[in-house]
What does this fold into?
Amino acid sequence: MLLLDGKATAAAIRAELKEEVAAGLAAAGRAPGLAVILVGEDPASQVYVRNKERGCEEAGIRSEAFRLPADTTQETLEVLIDELNGRADIDGILLQLPLPKGLNSQRCLERISPKKDVDGFHPENMGRLALGLPGFRPCTPAGVMTLLERYDLSPSGKKAVVVGRSNIVGKPLALMLGAPGKYANATVTVCHSGTPNLAEECRQADFLFVAAGRPCLVTSDMVKPGAVVVDVGIHRTDEGLVGDCKYDDITCIASAMTPVPGGVGPMTIAQLLINTVISWKGRTGIAG
Ligand code: NAD
It folds into this structure.
């Protein structure tokens, strides 16, 4: 079985980005800039933000973190977003979710300029994805697509099943897989909590993507022999991090699979860095 090593692939991407940034630095007149906003003390979010800052550093991106207290008001947060929207040295704005209770995430996401929306969550960018127009793509599904491409695994003409229909993973991933393109062009089925026979649907998949947020939901009897399996789920358990798939059992059946950790997680951050560098190139006019 082929291990789809997101950790190694993300490290290679960071090294490539570092070279790209170094090559464009003189013409651009400045390094790429990413603003990261973290509100409150959520421990998982703090880890994600730290990993994103580290990724930026390795790729030659200047990251600026804004750590705000949990009792920050909607107005204060929106004023900060407006200020960052207006700053010439900031190419991307990332608002770490979830926000503490009382803050309206959707309103904040819509406040971020679509031109700096490197997370790809603004309705304009989601709309552009649905229409097949260029725009920032959400980092987790785009990271999954990048991983397939790096391993030369093409779902074109194959049957893909996506388990999950969330706005940040399942829905955009289904759109990306079904779009035209060498590493897309799949026939896509989306399963969700209302799907009556999940196992039967999953067994049809040449490419199975699981983003249900349920630990070990997908077992080996739900996987077609030789399928490519991508596990997006992450769960902290007493035995460490696990995904939405029963990894050990499925590795005996699948032809390729992502591990948890070290699969989709690092690719999500790598994609954020890619999006930030794309934004920087466009905004400084050095895009080729
Ligand atoms: P979510 O809870 O918003 O959505 C889960 C989806 O799965 C829903 O659409 C639901 O209908 C579907 N679902 C739930 N139970 C199901 C079942 N029994 N059968 C079929 N469908 C079912 O979650 P999300 O934000 O999309 O995240 C999914 C998982 O991916 C979580 O474990 C999350 O932690 C992880 N995640 C990882 C990364 C990463 O960078 N690796 C990024 C985002 C999310």
Notes: The pocket of nicotinamide-adenine-dinucleotide is lined by residues 140, 163-166, 168-170, 191-193, 195, 198, 211-214, 217, 232-234, 264-265, 268 (CB under 6 Å). The radius of gyration is 19 Å.
